[in-house]
Amino acid sequence: MQNETLSVTDNRTGRSYTLPLFQGSIRATDLRQIKVEPDDFGVMSYDPAYLNTACCQSSITYIDGDKGILLYRGYPIDVLAERNSFLEVAYLLLFGELPGPAALKVWEDDITHHTLVHENIKKFMDGFHHDAHPMGMLVSTLAALSTFYPAARHVKDHTERDLQVLRLVGKIPTIAAYAYRHSLGLPYVYPDNSLGYTQNFLNMLWKMTAPKYEGNPVLARALEVLFILHADHEQNCGTTAMRCVGSSLPDPYVTAAAAAAGLSGPLHGGANEEVLKMLDEIGSVDHIPAYIDAVKAGKFKLMGFGHRVYKNYDPRARIIKQTAEQVFAVTGRNAKLDIALELEKIALEDPYFIQRKLYPNVDFYSGIIYQAMGFSPDMFTVLFAIPRMVGWLAQWKEMLDDPEQKIARPRQIYTGRMPETAGVAPQVKNELVGV
Ligand code: ACO
Predict the structure, then answer these.
(1) Is 49 inside a domain boundary?
(2) Are residues 13 and 90 in the same domain?
(3) Residue-wise DSSP of 225-237
(4) CA-nearest residue, atom 45 of ligand 1
(5) Using a 6 Å cutoff on CB, does residue 63 contact ligand 1?
(6) What is the pLDDT of residues 87-145, one digit of tens each?
(7) DSSP label of 201
(8) Is residue 123 part of a domain?
(9) Which terminus of the chain is less hemmed in, N or C, by CB atoms within 10 Å?
(10) Residue 224's closest CA among 193, 250, 247, 201?
(11) Could you read off the pLDDT of 380-411 as tens digits, one per residue?
């Protein structure tokens, strides 16, 4: 297209510059030519929290936040959630296309045969305090895997890289289940290779003394749908950590641990746990108006509402709401659902939320479903991390193969003291700079 440029005039010098536009963006480094003196550093862009900065080109996930659209590799999220298994979607995200029957069989076998963890991992996890948060256990154990697979540091070797992808996708449900069993003081359950991905996870969580455990198929499918919805969400905080940390080329275990740490915060994947605490605090439907008033007065945020990118209903929240009904048909209705539905209704009609385009996000209903399935709130973010591992790895692989990527190293605007204002005497100052 012609005229895909931006004209900039520097009012300090009167000079004009023509900057090429690419997909509606300028390259931040093109600003560096804009200088007053030849030896100036040049203009930078200042963007705390990356509100308006694209850090990569990606062909994995597309979001139109204004229209409420989410696509994985071009496929609408609702179509995938309705028709596909989690491992099919994982394959799609990691390799770019849905697998045919033969490729799917190999992929499922490969993942299944990497679910077991080294016995020393069990011992390592035994060392955690009895009330350790499962997310802390997950982050630490992911990092610890790095010490079991030293060859994983060869991240430019595609064979090694693909092997670690299988290990991480295969082992994360096992580690998550072990974290859960540890917090309950229950013996760990080994993976059962005859079960599918989510059924096996349920087995490792809930199996007691019976020789074989098979979870309720409705709950297993609901978990599968939740896993599909959480698998990737382009450049969120955790994924950005994956790309940023991965850019210095450490192995994927420590890199994924960094991403999981990013996910664990209450403003990100930790929000589902906070939603449950909030619903408990509200207690009943008639307390909602007072709670909403306190939110509007700025006392606290309505957890599970709002999103950096979605300024419309989060398409994942819509699907989760339907899944909740299917789960409650099996488990019985969770009283918190009534509070959540009423909260949503009031919030969606209130000018405060309408003006700020605050809609329920993916975390608003997921916690209620997880609790109905029998999970305690501190496991919710771990349940988010299992499928998100696929997104992290897909983005990590894409980053490693991107010829434009280098070690992530942002700039800053220094606002601190210089020696003159720090009160450093001239002779001391000279010593400091080695004169
Ligand atoms: N409740 C009440 N007010 C809110 C909320 C909320 N949940 N979220 C945003 N606002 C208000 C802000 O106070 C601000 O109001 P102001 O303009 O009067 O100052 C306005 O809406 C814009 O909010 P920002 O904080 O600028 O939005 P931002 O994009 O930085 O934050 C975030 C997005 C972090 C998700 C925020 O909406 C939030 O904290 N939500 C609650 C936590 C949550 O549910 N997180 C999960 C997100 S989904 C995920 O990570 C998987």
Answers:
(1) no
(2) no
(3) HHHHHHS--SS-H
(4) 267
(5) no
(6) 999 999 999 999 999 999 999 999 999 999 999 999 999 999 999 999 999 999 999 99
(7) H
(8) yes
(9) N
(10) 201
(11) 999 999 999 999 999 999 999 999 999 999 99
